[in-house]
Amino acid sequence: MSEHPIAIAWLDLVAASVLILVAVALSAWQRLGLGNQIVLGAVRATVQLIAVGYLLVWVFAANRWDVVLAVLAVMVVVATITATRRQAKRWRDRMKILPISAVAILAGAGLTLVYVSTVIVHVKPWYDPRYLIPLFGMIVANAMNAAALALERLQSEMESRRAEVEAYLALGASPRQAAAEPARRAAVAAMIPAVNALAVVGIVSLPGMMTGQILAGADPTLAVRYQLVVMFMLTAANAITAALTVQAYRRTFFTPAAQLRAREADESAQASPAG
Amino acid sequence: MDTPAASGVTPLPTAVDPSPRVVDESDAVFRLHDVRQVRGGKGILDGVSLDVPRAGFTALIGPSGSGKTSLLRLLNRLDDPTSGTIEFSARPIADYPVRALRRRVGFVFQTAVMFAGTVRDNLDIARRFVAEPSATLQEREVGELLELVGLDPAFASRQAADLSGGEKQRVALARALVTKPEVLLLDEPTASLDPEVADRLVHTLAHLRECTGLTMVVVTHRLHEARLAATFVVMLETGRVIESGDATTVMNHAVHERTRAFLRAGEEGRRSE
How many CB atoms lie within 10 A of CB A224? Predict the structure, then answer.
């Protein structure tokens, strides 16, 4: 780092919150009814980030591998829960997809982190929290989105293509063959954000990490190299998580006898089938 | 490889079919004993016992919600019963590898689902589940299949999605024949067709059965169709078999009062159509 960044004092934060008030005022003027949510969101963000800041200070000072691994584990758990939250309303259904998304996120994010930290960045010691935690944070967030998109899309595709899937089964297709198109569409849907991000980076968006490094005084070309590594690792994590999620979740739609499982709606209140 | 049309005999199973096979001397292709199905706490089938004759055209009739479709779906294991036994060719149906069973017992749905691509693509897809993934049908086989279901062989190159409802149903029928099944299950195949097109399809089915010896089990709510083609009739109501037997006998001299009432109502409905 060539120079120290300009410091932001606590008092400066108060001045920054004026920007939130602008949003609140505009909301009130247009009667959007978002004022409370904006204020609440701002307060939450402040509390969470300050807490994380202090936590990171402690973790960096402790500099122990077990503490670092514990932090990474918590990130995976939170990401798993978040990825499945919108997907299943009932706990029984959610228990089915929690292990799927946990394994997919852990594998997608974990494998990528190991590769980047050992082969590319050569982090020493291997658990150096200053590298592992921010890198993993970015990867996990991405893997989480990939898992959530894959789950959501596969379920809706299986729902809307139920007749087609069953037509395949009736011809003697395996569940894998029968659900090939829904699975493909779900995987594409989960990959699109990462692929789009690759295409527009530097043109439409200046990535946060690169901006942060430059603000912090880093050489812009180094910031660019870091950012490229980040983009590539996010793409890999996204692909691994999406593929694992789709493959594992696809199986849950079928019985061992290659039958489509009854829909949730059918199980709770069975409308009489035709005939 | 001969198509059913070319050979004019009961379609033979394909060489890759690994399912158990016994020579069945009995004339029942399916034997159901005390079959019950409960879904969402609601009884759909309530102790169905039934023999489905081999090489016949069995019509499942009865009011909506009587369990006809649910019963049909059990016969190639799109669903399994909650309790009771089902035998196919004198062996418990669950003894057959399910995918092999479904190639021997084809299913045609109420509304034909066309896969992406041409009519030919639709037939090739079915072929791939039988043979190696790259297998395609010969030009001649495609033509014969289409003729068998009353379509001009020129249809092969048409986009399946562009066809009319009746044409789609015929393609679905041809597609189900690709795996050379012994039994064809049809779930109200004419329900979404207008009466004239529906009648023609029923004639095609009857003709198909005559020249291939296929066993057909057809759910229908049009009694007229049962009269046209059925050799055996099963009357269902509220998940039970009310009456079953030779088609002429059941249609003309039904024993059960519920059957007679249902048939009467059906005839009146047709006259007012």
Answer: 16
Mind telling me how many Å the CA of B123 is from chain A's nearest CA? 11
Nearest to B88 by CA among B104, B69, B67: B104
The secondary structure of A85-126, three-state, reads: HCCCCCHHHHHHHHHHHHHHHHHHHHHHHHHHHHHHCCCCCC
A258·B187 Cβ contact <8 A = no
Over residues B206-217, mean pLDDT: 91
Q: A275–B79: do the CB atoms touch at under 8 Å?
A: no
Q: In DSSP terms, which residues pair with B108 in a beta bridge?
A: B186
Q: For chain B, say whether A180 makes contact (Cβ under 8 Å).
A: no
Residues of A in contact with B81 (CB under 8 A): none
Domains of chain B: 25-271 (3.40.50.300)
Tell me the nearest-neighbour CA distance from B75 into chain A, angstroms: 11
Question: Chain B: residue nearest A166 by CA?
Answer: B78
For the ranges A81-85, B16-20, B236-240, the lowest mean pLDDT is seen at B16-20
Q: Look at residue A1 and tell me whether its pLDDT is greater than 50.
A: no
B62:A259 CB<8 A: no
What is the 3-state secondary structure of A156-196?
A: HHHHHCHHHHHHHHHCCCCHHHHCHHHHHHHHHHHHHHHHH
Please report, for residues A28, A167, A171, B18, B126, the alpha-carbon distance to residue B136 in angstroms, rounded to integers and kept in the order given: 65, 19, 15, 21, 9
| Residue A270 in contact with partner chain B when CB distance is under 8 A | yes
pLDDT digits (tens, 9 = 90+) for B81-127: 999 999 999 999 999 999 999 999 999 999 999 999 999 999 999 98
The pTM of the full predicted model, rounded to 2 decimals, is 0.83
Note whether B246 and B231 are within 8 A (CB): yes
From chain B, pick out residues whose CB is under 8 angstroms from the CB of A258: 77, 98-99
Interface contact flag, A274 B79, Cβ < 8 Å: no
The tens digit of pLDDT for each residue in B162-176 reads: 999 999 999 999 999
Position with higher pLDDT, A238 vs B13: A238
Pairwise CB contact (< 8 Å): A177 & B67? no
The contacts of residue A24 (CB under 8 Å, 6+ apart) are A35, A38, A39
User: Is A267 an interface residue toward B (CB < 8 Å)?
Assistant: yes
Here the tokens at position A222 are 């180094």
